[in-house]
Amino acid sequence: MKTKIGVMGSAEQLPALGEMAAALGKAVAARDLILLTGATTGLIYETGRAARDAHAMHIGISPAHNERENVEKYDLPLDACDAIIYTGFGLKGRNVVLVRSCDIVIFIAGSIGSLNEFTIAYDEGKIIGCLKGSGGTADEIERVVRSLNKPTSSKLFFESDPVKLLDLCLAALS
After folding, report:
1. What domains are defined for the chain?
2. DSSP 3-state assignment of 93?
3. In whole angstroms, what is the distance from residue 1 CA to residue 3 CA?
4. Residue 101, Cα to own-chain centre: how many angstroms?
5. What does the radius of gyration of the chain's CA atoms come to, in whole angstroms?
6. Which residues contact 173 (CB under 8 A, 6 or more apart)?
7. What backbone phi and psi angles, to 5 degrees, belong to 60?
8. Buried b (16+ CB within 10 A) or exposed e, 125-158
9. Which of 98, 123, 127, 164 is the most buried (most CB within 10 A)?
10. Tell me: the pLDDT tens digits for 80-119?
11. pTM (2 decimals)?
């Protein structure tokens, strides 16, 4: 079975990080992995679109009940995913489904929603990669873990190069 990589983080368009997001998507495709995202906008959209354009399978996990709600209520795109799973669970419920469906979770930038995804991944004992220098949640995770000091079986990796980060996480999975 193929490894499932979840990429989570900023749903904002951050042009300075667009190349980093696309490089991560291309690296997922080059390794013949399945990409899972929150079927959202911004950096996550850029990662998903790059992965799909490079022929990776990209599955989006939506907070919506259906395609119409995905577009009208959540204002989320449909064009970067090969398939979208409509959970109907809202944003927080979607996060649980998304994280639990992944073998590895990688964070690029992100805000409070990404922090929620991180706490789920950390409690679930996932392999977690943080793209250093991307800002937000990805750069705060190390401090949060050190400060709150809750032991789990999670393995954490911090790297500023998206390709190296992916490879570190994959090596930990082996």
Report:
1. 4-173 (3.40.50.450)
2. helix
3. 7
4. 11
5. 14
6. 3, 103, 104, 127
7. -100, 140
8. ebbbbbbbebbbbbbbbeeebeeeeeeeebebbb
9. 98
10. 999 999 999 999 999 999 999 999 999 999 999 999 999 9
11. 0.96
